[in-house]
Design goal:
Elements (H helix, E strand, L loop, with lengths): L3 H10 L3 E7 L5 E6 L8 H13 L8 E5 L4 H11 L2 E8 L2 E4 L10 E9 L3 H12 L3 E10 L10 E7 L4 E2 L5 H4 L12
Parallel strand pairs: 3-4, 3-6, 6-7, 7-8
Antiparallel strand pairs: 1-2, 2-9, 4-5
The protein binds zinc ion.
The site of zinc ion has 7 residues, from helix 5.
């Protein structure tokens, strides 16, 4: 298994996790910024993280891995490859998380739900409901990064590679602004 230090190294190297002085979409400021999709540019790193996450579910009988599109598609695929099972994804249709494209689950199939990052865990919950609507069981939840401060409780075996909390401030309370540090708006072109 990867150590936390190695996981952080991968997240920094692939720019999933950036450090500096950021103005977030909410208007708040932070020292760290996270964009989980960045790692998906690098198949080798993505594979290493997913292999590690998949190993944590050894001993479960899993028939399929399901993730919410778009962020989870590659994660589900990589984990399913390790487990030797199917990879499916859900999408929203009129706002409701559902299976499209003919994806289906058999009654009583055991499903591992995966996601790149959870903050509130809302989309994982929605995927779990979609799986259960098909008569299948959710036997676990796996996430690369838990940003919920361990607050997400899905009622099944849950594993995350790493837990990361990002502190944010209103601009007037921001310690980096007080130091006069120049600010970046992530997502914008420079
Ligand atoms: Zn600031």
């Amino acid at each position: 298994m990867l150590e936390e230090k190695e996981i952080l190294e991968i997240l920094r190297e692939t720019k999933v996790l950036r450090e500096g002085h950021f103005r977030l979409t909410s208007g708040r400021h932070s020292k760290k910024y996270m964009q989980c999709a960045q790692v998906l540019q690098y198949p080798n790193f993505t594979q290493r993280l997913c292999e590690d996450l998949a190993r944590r579910f050894k001993g479960h009988e899993i028939h399929a891995v399901v993730a919410p599109a778009i962020g989870g598609i590659i994660i589900a695929y990589e984990i399913a490859k390790v487990l030797g099972v199917r990879a499916l994804f859900t999408e929203r249709e009129d706002g409701k998380m559902t299976f499209r494209r003919g994806f289906d689950l058999e009654d009583d199939e055991n499903v591992l739900v995966v996601e790149d990052v959870i903050t509130t865990g809302g989309s994982v919950q929605e995927v779990m409901e979609a799986v259960r609507e098909r008569g299948a069981n959710v036997c676990g939840v796996g996430v690369l990064v838990d940003r919920s401060a361990g607050k997400s409780d899905f009622g099944v075996h849950t594993e995350s590679l790493i837990s990361i909390q990002i502190e944010t401030w209103e601009p007037e309370d921001c310690p980096l602004c007080k130091e006069g540090a120049s600010i970046t708006k992530p997502g914008s072109r420079r």
